[in-house]
Amino acid sequence: MGRSPCCEKVGLKKGPWTPEEDQKLLAYIEEHGHGSWRALPGKAGDVYRLFLANYICSLQRCGKSCRLRWTNYLRPDIKRGKFNLQEEQTIIQLHALLGNRWSAIATHLPKRTDNEIKNYWNTHLKKRLTKMGIDPVTHKPKSDTLSSVDGQCKNEANLSHMAQWESARLEAEARLVRESKLRSNSFQHQLGSSGSARVSVLAQLQNKMAAPLAAPPCLDVLKAWHGVWPKSAKGGVGAGDLESPTSTLSFSEIALSMPAVGFGENSAAVIEFVRNPGTCEGGLVVKEECEVEWKGLEKSTHFPEFKERTENSMSFTSGLHDMPFPVEGSWISESLRTGNGHEHVSNFIEGFTDLLLDNSDDRNSSDSSEDSDNADGSGGDHIYEENKNYWNDILNLVNSSSFDSPVF
DNA sequence: AAACCCTGCAACCGCTCTTAC
DNA sequence: GGTAAGAGCGGTTGCAGGGTT
């Protein structure tokens, strides 16, 4: 462990780059190339020495600064300028799933750097979501914090959704850790000129859907996760204190299990959103060919009446595991392209587009409609449906579009 | 016209992880 | 196995430019 030599210590230049410096750096890279510096053993040292040589000659910048300038600004495959609506939606949805993992998000946005995405999130999207009444951290409506009888019901529904998604996210992260090790060698040559060795979290997730279940790695959070898995497989209970380092939720209060994204090979895995008709709570049910149902909430002490699926159940098949690696192409949802039974995604996008374009009025009207809903006692249904669709659509979009990721 | 405020973004900082020795 | 240094990442800062008073 150690830090790179600080620019200050060796008197290197800091601050904005001048066009002359950019030219020098470009000239150097033209001559010596670039790429994943880690992926070029032996060369990385040469690169750094050359940077130092460059520094000695004229470019008084440390190697780290040069690398940043190249990766964030000078790279020819960088698309600059405003983010379009689809990119915005993608960022929001991936952020909901991955959190502040900008590099992972960037792998799904062609020609955008993690730094650019991060800046755009902090300066635009975060504020916009806040303005829309959505917590940018949890991606759930802030209005849920209103205290009321229905409010508690809504909170529980949202907590349930969040818990499920947090678990799914943790599972994806764990797979990234495990599978990136396994695949990094074979994937490196496929990674683009960005030179980044980053492996797509979502692609990993998707890959996992085509792979047999394996024991999770020895991450603490997954030890906890692993501990509940066998119980869940038998229709058992809950997750205990399964918490993410970045989670805003306390799983101990939710008590559910959520094997939502692990699927057996060649199985026709189905995720069903299940709701207890008597309350606002719900859960995901994963079904495979053998019809084993993962009713995570079934025996939860928090959801004692949770027994049956209702007409409110929402199911969607992954339908993806028999596909090879994604083909090159733009980041377009498979479901959007083909309309293969995922119409709700389109509806979601349209609705989201409306919100993005004009959120204040919508928000007001939505608030008022919530009030009226609450007044007749169905407010929980309204919020419940909104949130159910929101989170389910994120998963659906991710599932359907990860094959189009340009990373592979 | 000047001062102030706000916004956007490039760049830096500091940390962890990975790799080489 | 231990250590040093490179690579990568996320958070933060500081400045430039535009808008407002």
UniProtKB/TrEMBL annotation:
Keywords: Developmental protein, DNA-binding, Nucleus, Repeat, Transcription, Transcription regulation
Ranges where the record places region Disordered: 359-381
Residues of the Myb-like domain: 9-74, 75-125
Molecular function in Gene Ontology: DNA binding
A GO BP annotation: cell morphogenesis
Higher taxonomy: Eukaryota, Viridiplantae, Streptophyta, Embryophyta, Tracheophyta
HTH myb-type domain mapped to chain residues: 9-74, 75-129
SUPFAM superfamilies according to UniProt: Homeodomain-like
Superkingdom, natural source: Eukaryota
Annotated InterPro entries: Homeodomain-like_sf (IPR009057), Myb_dom (IPR017930), Myb_TF_plants (IPR015495), SANT/Myb (IPR001005)
Localization per record: Nucleus
GO CC term, one of those recorded: nucleus
Pfam family, one: Myb_DNA-binding
Presence of keyword Secreted: no
UniProt name for this protein: Uncharacterized protein
